[in-house]
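Much of our argument rests on the idea that a fold can be written as discrete symbols. In the encoding step, the backbone of a single protein was reduced to a row of integers, each denoting a local shape. We regard such an encoding as a compact summary of how the chain folds. The record that follows shows the chain in one-letter code together with its fold in token form:
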Amino acid sequence: MVEDVRDNGRVNDADQEAPETPRKDPTADLPESSAESGTSSSSEESRGSRLYPRVTSFRSRRGSLTDPQQDAWDRMWPKIGAEVSDELLDTTAWFGREAPLIIEIGSGTGTATAAMAKAEPHVNLIAVEVYRPGLAQLLQLVDRNDIPNVRVLRGDAVEVLEHMVAPESLTGVRVFFPDPWPKARHHKRRLLQGPTFALIASRLKPGGVLHVATDHAEYAEAIAEAGNAEPLLTELDWESPMTHERPVTKFEDKAHKVGSSITELIWGKIKS
């Protein structure tokens, strides 16, 4: 299931700008309404997901917006952004058209998201991210490059898949450079484990595609094992409905120069 190995590197741009330890106030980077109520996607550790009891697979991150980012946020967020909720998405109404739907989990600062959306104008692309400055940078890219087929959700991607996405409605799911949580005691925080593969598979249409990339060798092995164990996923032996070409971000380029490598894994959902 490993499509290729390329010398690139760590790409979750947001991770490169984030502190290594969680902030003391876990609600500091949450929407005001969530912080006040005490419930949000960042409170998963205490209440658990409906999928399975878990802790979050992402770090809380500090980050204030620059003036240009705030301007882009103020103008673009009401048009193409939304907070994660329990309401099923009406993507036809949100995008203003019917088109193949792809979800990217963990879009970072959106460099790859914007480039891939521009290269695939025939698809609707939803980027899911918890890091507000990263989303603001994506909004800037969408605005600057006039990319009409991107929408953004802020919050936990598992919540999105569980509550906001209908079964067998996705053409593709992309997970590029999820946090590897390298310490053994933190492996429970990893996003890509058996239950998440089952959830993603249930949301893919027959023939839909899951594309994963990681620069962490041990995590790549664990991902491959969990993905290959999911009975609804199989080796992709038909023409993919979405591109697998990713632009190289600046962080990948830096990692390339020091010899880091990337593992790409691609599965298709079995056809009925």
Observations:
- Confidence is low (pLDDT under 50) at residues 2-53.
- Strands lie at 2-6, 81-83, 101-105, 124-129, 150-154, 170-176, 204-214, 233-235, 262-269.
- The first strand starts at residue 2 and ends at 6.
